[in-house]
Amino acid sequence: MTDTVRKAGSTQQGKHQEVYEAHRKYPRLILDLPGTLVKLNEEIIKVIIHDLSIDGVQMRCDHQTAGIIYPSGKFIKPGKGPLVQIKFNLPVEEETRKVDATCQIFYISGIGDNQIAFGLQFRNFKGNSGANIDHYIMQKIEPVEDRMRSYLETPRSLQEISEFMHMEVNEVTEMLDRMKIQGDVVSYQDGSIWRNLRLSAALTEIFDTLNRLDKRLSEIEIRLNRK
Fold it and tell me: In the list 91, 152, 217, 218, which could disulfide-bond 198, CB 3.0-4.6 Å?
């Protein structure tokens, strides 16, 4: 890995970027909305906010703009990136809500076509910016979670869920983890395959099994009493 911003066309990704992206909280929602970045010297720069998650954004710009934002282009050590201010608008419940946040640059990567990606992690928010992000994310993921809950009335493997939901396996895993924390989903091992089931369906299945067992025991007891 070099210590400068990669040239356009490079597809290699740094390990630091991969680790950071892997640990961003679900979900990452594609925005591709215009935004502005303000450096500490108050220079205002137009950028594109490519995606959004609870803890950060990926911002994109061309090589020239990237040189203005981060002139040295050197590899950024974890937690040592410069602070910048990012501003953009989100459509929330048919309204436009503002986001104004201080972020730390976590990585820089060339992604081809004269584009540079910056990974930014939120450090603090102005006004209602944090709440606006939460509302936007919940507005987008609740219908998806409802669809998954309906599908998980029957035990399903990760691959089955991925194909049904048209999502990558890692995205399914992130959503399942979130739903497990909420107490909506349980997982169990079926041979070599992990299956996932809506908790309410699992409880129903458990009660049905107990009822069948109780009925069987009652039948056995009746037969024994007849002897």
Answer: 152
Using one digit for the tens of pLDDT, what is the confidence trace for 148-205?
A: 999 999 999 999 999 999 888 888 998 899 889 888 898 988 889 999 999 876 666 6
Whether cis (ω within 30° of 0) applies to the bond prior to 155 is no
Say what percent of the chain tops pLDDT 70: 82
How far lies 142's CA from each of 108, 146, 179, 198, 216, in Å?
31, 6, 11, 15, 42
pTM of the model: 0.66
Cα-Cα-Cα-Cα torsion 185, 58, 136, 174, nearest 10 degrees, comes to 0
Contact 61, 48 (CB under 8 A): yes
Q: In this structure, which long-range contacts are made by residues 142-149, counting pairs with CB atoms below 8 Å and at least 24 apart in sequence?
A: 144/175, 145/175, 145/179, 145/184, 148/175, 148/179, 149/179, 149/184, 149/185, 149/198
CA 72 from chain centre, in angstroms, equals 30
Residue 99 has pLDDT above 80, yes or no: yes
User: Which sequence spans correspond to the domains of the chain?
Assistant: 15-136, 152-227
Encode pLDDT of 100-113 as tens digits.
Answer: 999 999 999 998 88
Q: Kindly report the CATH class assigned to 15-136.
A: mainly beta
Helices and strands counted in the chain (H then E): 6, 9
205 with 213: CB under 8 angstroms? Answer: no
